[in-house]
């Protein structure tokens, strides 16, 4: 027994980071990577998304779009620390929400670990996801929603919609127990935000002059720069979701880039074929479509699958924006539903088709002999979309009651929200 004890002690000293002893032991490599990944995801909202959305909004509303993106991230940063995290990741309560044991991060300190990284770091990483998800919803209602109403909506939506769905998938809730696969946020982030945006846009109503007046983007250059920053930050979003610096994270990094590039090319060539011009806006939108679709699959699929996922996302995104929206007649200002909702659905289904057990053990899709996984993915999509639609509608009407209305008055909408709400202008004109 003494010899056995001595041998185990020597092995622990020689191999402190081996898989046999890694659980609940701080790994400095994983921690360093996750700090970087968290910073990358943070850049996506107040920089990448703000530029992407701001450039697509009209010049008289560019700063308002920036402000609403910024304030969404700031609110998420505070709400997540106070109660959002514990609703999402607290001890499971009947598969629906987390318990309140970690309210205001109670019970967590500098020595607490989540796997091989500090729990504080895990909390901040997950907070950045909450911040970008609610900010994505904004794309459906720019140009016409009251700033005060957006603030109230953000607080309620993060609490009632985002945090419970996050628990279902990543916090040990019913979707997790069912075996649903969502590596970095196909259901939690993109379907959730896309459906919420559609509901909000339908209630708020169409912009004045929609379908009649030309509504030119203020700066395609800003949008293209925003797409590039989103692409850059998405490496932290997807590869960081492995929560470790390992081969799966590297694979997620690789397929993320491949799908984004293929999505951009697919959108560009589809638009070129149909509308006879390959636009920069189309390229930027295609990048985002490819990124959205690969998000739930990033840690489960190989490079060949990422090519297919990106290709379909680019074509689907284009038709959702250029055809579906026109036929149905809804005013989703910056196509949050068309890109994030529709491509998020495709990505979640594609995960059920292409999940490869050679990449992540236990993740086996249709092409690897497990058709049941596709059915599970479909249930997770329906469950997310259904709950999001109903809960968002409730949140919208509560917001309307609290603030006395969702929409700015007609005069302010015509004049532009940069000046009437913020007293500023995005561009100085001589």
Outline the structure in words.
- The chain has 430 residues and is mainly α.
- It has one domain: Ammonium transporter AmtB like domains (Ammonium transporter fold, Orthogonal Bundle), CATH 1.10.3430.10.
- Helices cover 67% and strands 2% of the residues.
- The strands form two sheets. It has a two-stranded antiparallel sheet.
- Strand 1 and strand 2 form a beta hairpin.
- The radius of gyration is 22 Å and the shape is globular.
- About 4% of the residues have low confidence.
Distance between the termini: 86 Å
Beta-strand portion reads under 5%
Q: Based on helices, strands and strand pairing, what is the structural class?
A: mainly alpha
Residue windows where pLDDT falls under 50 for at least 5 positions = 4-22
Task: Identify the notable features of this structure and list them briefly.
mainly alpha; 430 residues; single chain
How do you describe this structure in short?
With 430 residues, this protein is mostly helical. The chain has helices spanning 2-14, 28-56, 62-89, 119-137, 147-170, 174-178, 186-204, 220-239, 247-275, 280-294, 303-328, 336-354, 372-403, 410-415, 417-422; strands at residues 92-93, 97-98, 113-114, 117-118.
What is the element layout, followed by pairings?
Blueprint: H1 2-14, H2 28-56, H3 62-89, E1 92-93, E2 97-98, E3 113-114, E4 117-118, H4 119-137, H5 147-170, H6 174-178, H7 186-204, H8 220-239, H9 247-275, H10 280-294, H11 303-328, H12 336-354, H13 372-403, H14 410-415, H15 417-422
Antiparallel strand pairs: 1-2, 3-4
């Amino acid at each position: 027994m003494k010899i056995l004890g001595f041998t185990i002690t020597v092995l622990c000293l020689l191999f402190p980071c081996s898989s046999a002893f890694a659980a609940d032991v701080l790994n400095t490599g994983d921690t360093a990577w996750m700090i970087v990944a968290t910073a990358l995801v943070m850049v996506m909202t107040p920089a990448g998304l703000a530029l992407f959305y701001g450039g697509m909004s009209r010049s008289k509303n560019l700063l308002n779009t920036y402000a609403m993106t910024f304030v969404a991230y700031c609110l998420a940063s505070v709400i997540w620390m106070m109660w959002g995290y514990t609703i999402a990741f607290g001890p499971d309560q009947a598969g629906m929400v987390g318990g309140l044991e970690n309210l205001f991060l109670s019970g967590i300190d500098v020595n607490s670990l989540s796997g091989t990284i500090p729990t504080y770091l895990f909390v901040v990483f997950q907070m950045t996801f909450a911040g970008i998800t609610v900010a994505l919803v904004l794309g459906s209602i720019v140009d016409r929603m009251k700033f005060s109403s957006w603030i109230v909506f953000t607080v309620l939506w993060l609490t009632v919609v985002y945090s419970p769905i996050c628990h279902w998938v990543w916090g040990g809730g019913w979707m997790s127990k069912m075996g649903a696969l969502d590596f970095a946020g196909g259901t939690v982030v993109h379907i959730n935000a896309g459906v919420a945006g559609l509901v909000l846009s339908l209630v708020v109503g169409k912009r004045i002059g929609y379908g009649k007046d030309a509504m030119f983007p203020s700066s395609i250059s800003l949008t293209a720069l925003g797409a590039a920053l989103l692409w850059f930050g998405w490496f932290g979003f997807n590869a960081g979701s492995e929560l470790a610096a390992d081969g799966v994270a590297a694979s997620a990094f690789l397929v993320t880039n491949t799908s984004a590039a293929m999505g951009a090319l697919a959108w560009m060539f589809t638009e070129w074929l149909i509308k006879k011009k390959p636009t920069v806006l189309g390229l930027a939108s295609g990048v985002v479509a490819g990124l959205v679709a690969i998000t739930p699959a990033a840690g489960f699929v190989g490079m060949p699958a990422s090519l297919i996922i990106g290709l379909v996302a680019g074509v689907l995104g284009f038709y959702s924006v250029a055809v579906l929206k026109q036929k149905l007649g809804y005013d989703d200002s910056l196509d949050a539903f068309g890109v994030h909702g529709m491509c998020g659905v495709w990505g979640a289904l594609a995960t059920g088709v292409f999940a490869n057990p050679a990449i992540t053990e236990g993740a086996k899709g249709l092409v690897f002999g497990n058709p049941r996984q596709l059915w599970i993915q479909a249930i997770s999509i329906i469950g997310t979309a259904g709950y999001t639609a109903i809960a968002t509608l409730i949140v919208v009407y509560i917001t309307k009651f609290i603030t006395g209305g969702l929409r700015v008055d007609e005069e302010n909408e015509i004049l532009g929200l940069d000046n009437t709400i913020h007293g500023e202008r995005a561009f100085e004109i001589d």
